[in-house]
């Protein structure tokens, strides 16, 4: 798949698991072909290709480790040459984890920054010229998955992670100006749309404590995030530079 056909094409980083997979499914159902990146599991990627093909999407799989910036540059440059069309870049893949100040090291901080901020910026550099040529009515679009807690509601013990996501949110605002009017750039800042699979936050008691401060009284779902991505990509033609909180009202509490 090179994106040379009449169907619109979206690239979704980390599109083989969790929120990224929900986004890929939603865009496939909306009539888009897909380029899906994954870090390591070829078996998971092949399974996802089959799932998305059942939804009518042509799928190209790309192995990509966002912590390897040389690889990010290489893959970005190659896709810029090889893809005949790209209408949306969805920056879903990220690194997450608690970073108590006493345990922060230069390498852990830099790893979070590479994956969550610098790699997305480099992909935007290489792929924005293709996005600028989109024939969609809403034009080409970049959507970055940020974090509500990195926008002025900091959580204790997550400083390095939050700094990396705050940088991503600032990338959204900066590129919205730099790439206008040809490409719209927006972000989504969830509270919780998928609980961590390990660590304290995977435990029921911690989840109940968090939800006690959510006015809607429940966690969001990957599908909630996926539908917001679809709207930003296909419908929100006059929206750019926004980082939209998807948090059930947690910001207010």
Overview of this structure, please?
There is one protein chain. The longest helix has 26 residues, at 106-131. The protein has helices spanning 18-29, 42-54, 69-82, 106-131, 159-178, 204-211, 222-234, and strands spanning 9-12, 33-38, 59-63, 88-91, 140-145, 183-190, 243-246. Strand 4 (88-91), helix 4 and strand 5 (140-145) form a beta-alpha-beta unit. With 253 residues, the protein is of the alpha/beta class. The chain is globular and about 50 Å long. It contains seven helices and seven strands. The protein has a seven-stranded parallel sheet, with helices on both faces. Helix 1 crosses helix 7, helix 3 (69-82) runs parallel beside helix 4 and helix 4 packs parallel to helix 5 (159-178).
Strand content: 5-15%
End-to-end span in angstroms? 46 Å
The tally of beta strands, per DSSP, is 7
The averaged pLDDT comes out at: 94
Pick out the low-confidence regions. none
What about the largest sheet?
7 strands, parallel
Keyphrases for this structure?
253 residues, alpha/beta, seven-stranded parallel β-sheet, 7 strands
Write the layout of secondary structure elements.
Layout: E1 9-12, H1 18-29, E2 33-38, H2 42-54, E3 59-63, H3 69-82, E4 88-91, H4 106-131, E5 140-145, H5 159-178, E6 183-190, H6 204-211, H7 222-234, E7 243-246
Parallel strand pairs: 1-2, 1-4, 2-3, 4-5, 5-6, 6-7
Helix pairs in contact: 1-2, 1-7, 3-4, 4-5
């Amino acid at each position: 798949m090179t994106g040379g056909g009449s169907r619109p094409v979206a690239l979704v980083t980390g599109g083989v698991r969790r929120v990224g997979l929900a986004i890929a499914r939603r865009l496939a159902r909306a009539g888009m072909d897909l380029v899906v990146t994954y870090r390591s599991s070829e078996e998971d990627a092949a399974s996802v290709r089959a799932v998305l093909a059942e939804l009518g999407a042509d799928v190209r799989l790309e192995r990509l480790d966002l912590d390897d910036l040389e690889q990010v540059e290489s893959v970005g440059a190659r896709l810029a040459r090889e893809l005949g069309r790209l209408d949306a870049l969805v920056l879903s893949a990220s690194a997450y984890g608690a970073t108590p100040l006493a345990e922060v090291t230069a390498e852990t901080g830099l790893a979070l920054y590479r994956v969550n901020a610098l790699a997305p910026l480099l992909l935007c550099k290489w792929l924005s010229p293709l996005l600028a040529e989109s024939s969609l009515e809403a034009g080409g679009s970049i959507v970055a998955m940020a974090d509500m807690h990195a926008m002025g509601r900091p959580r204790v013990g997550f400083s390095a992670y939050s700094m990396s996501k705050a940088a991503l949110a600032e990338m959204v605002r900066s590129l919205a100006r730099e790439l206008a009017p040809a490409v719209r750039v927006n972000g989504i800042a969830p509270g919780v749309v998928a609980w961590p699979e390990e660590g304290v936050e995977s435990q029921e008691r911690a989840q109940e404590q968090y939800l006690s401060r959510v006015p809607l009284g429940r966690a969001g779902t990957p599908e909630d995030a996926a539908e917001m991505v679809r709207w930003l990509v296909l419908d929100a033609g006059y929206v750019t530079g926004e980082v939209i909180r998807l948090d059930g009202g947690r910001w207010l509490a």
